[in-house]
């Protein structure tokens, strides 16, 4: 996706095109800022201070919208990392406890207690032994 920035140099405004993949809020924020720049420019040319103020408000609002988009992007990246990490933990758990099935290991995601119960059931562990093994296992991460 391509977006546009308005740049001012020596009292001349230039449109700059950059290529970047953005989420909707990032794009909306950039567009809002661009509209604000246009209002400020038009307000200066028509001697309309109200339009200039509207332009400044549009720029501020656009920056907030863009920041929201940036935060959402960071959240999505962190979520993907956590999901891949979850798979890694599940795969290592299957290697460590070979009597468990995929469904059993997925319980690990939902509840420590449920997973401990699976260990007790499959390996005849006490609650304390199951908890100890899980803590030891999780310490590697």
From TrEMBL:
This is CsbD family protein. The keyword Coiled coil applies. Residues 65-92 form a coiled coil. Keywords: Coiled coil.
């Amino acid at each position: 996706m391509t977006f546009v920035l308005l740049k001012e140099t020596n009292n001349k405004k230039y449109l700059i095109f950059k290529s970047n993949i953005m989420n909707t809020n990032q794009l909306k924020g950039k567009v809002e800022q661009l509209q604000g720049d246009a209002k400020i420019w038009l307000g200066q040319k028509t001697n309309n201070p109200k339009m200039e103020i509207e332009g400044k408000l549009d720029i501020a609002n656009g920056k907030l919208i863009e920041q929201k988009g940036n935060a959402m992007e960071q959240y999505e990246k962190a979520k993907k990392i956590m999901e891949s990490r979850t798979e890694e933990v599940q795969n290592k758990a299957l290697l460590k406890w070979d009597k468990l099935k995929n469904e059993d290991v997925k319980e690990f995601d939902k509840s420590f207690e449920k997973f401990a119960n699976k260990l007790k059931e499959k390996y005849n562990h006490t609650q304390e032994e199951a908890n100890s093994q899980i803590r030891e296992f999780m310490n590697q991460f």
